[in-house]
Amino acid sequence: MSSIMRTSERLFPPVEGTALEEDLARGLVDSDEQAFAAIYRRWSSLVHTMAARSLGDAREAEDVTQQVFLAAWRGRSGFHPERGPLGAWLVGITRRKTVDALAARTRRLRLVEAAGRAADAAVPNPQPAVIDQVLDRVLLSAELSRLPRRQREVLRLAFYDDLTQAQISERTGLPLGTVKSHARRGLFQLRGKIEEGR
Questions:
Q1: C-alpha distances in angstroms, 40 versus 25, 35, 77, 93, 126?
Q2: Where do runs of H (alpha helix) occur along the chain?
Q3: CA distance 154 to 103
Q4: CA-to-CA distance for 197 and 136, rounded, in angstroms?
Q5: What CA–CA distance (Å, rounded) separates 155 from 141?
Q6: Higher pLDDT among residues 11 and 130, named by residue
Q7: What single DSSP character describes residue 158?
Q8: DSSP 8-state secondary structure symbol assigned to residue 179
Q9: Sign of the CA dihedral 116, 117, 122, 126?
Q10: Measured between alpha carbons, how far is 79 from 56 in angstroms, rounded to an integer?
């Protein structure tokens, strides 16, 4: 009997649940940040579970969950409640972001394989240290691209343009203290990822 009740609740949600979802959907369309926070609380565990099952990696699933809700907020003008429920719309975004994450993982693996082949071709008997350096560069580049935009921008200007923190501050218009904070946090994250990758 209880299983029949649970099944009927899934097929025919309680009226108050449907009304709440409609309120949240209106809030999203109206750019209501409190409604969006409630949407996150209500659906984030579902989104994370779906991503984790597909990706098999909790950390990647967390990234996808953030991307889904960021995409939902940015694309809120594209949500039309008359076309379907809010939960289904979020599930659709989750599927697309999960596919994107799987494609990015495949690209990273191909990049590492290509770097390994290039290292083998460049050095007749490659030394393990040379291979490690090449892989570190590939890993560094991949992880750098995953940092938040400001941290990535600051580190790229420092690494590739060889700018000082004061010059980065001048070029970006960010306060010097903010540049230093972005650099410190970005380097800390990169170091952790490279050590984890090893």
A1: 12, 9, 17, 14, 50
A2: 2-11, 15-29, 33-55, 58-74, 86-122, 128-146, 149-159, 165-172, 176-197
A3: 27
A4: 9
A5: 11
A6: 130
A7: H
A8: H
A9: positive
A10: 29
Q: What angle do CA 175, 179, 181 make, to 5 degrees?
A: 115
Residue with tokens 């990535």: 152
pLDDT tens for 114-135 read: 777 776 665 555 566 655 666 6
For residues 39, 41, 46, 52, the Cα torsion angle rounded to the nearest 10 degrees is: 120
Q: Which of 86, 77, 81, 92 is nearest to 39 (CA)?
A: 86
Cβ-contact 88, 42 below 8 angstroms: no
Q: How far apart are CA 169 and CA 172, in angstroms?
A: 5
* pLDDT reading at 5 higher than 90: no
Q: Among all chains, which residue has been given the structure tokens 């809120």?
A: 76
In the block, residue with structure tokens 């990234």: 63
CA dihedral 136, 139, 140, 143 (to 10 degrees): -160
Long-range pairs, 105-112, Cβ under 8 A, ≥24: 105/55, 105/60, 108/142, 111/138, 111/142, 112/138, 112/139
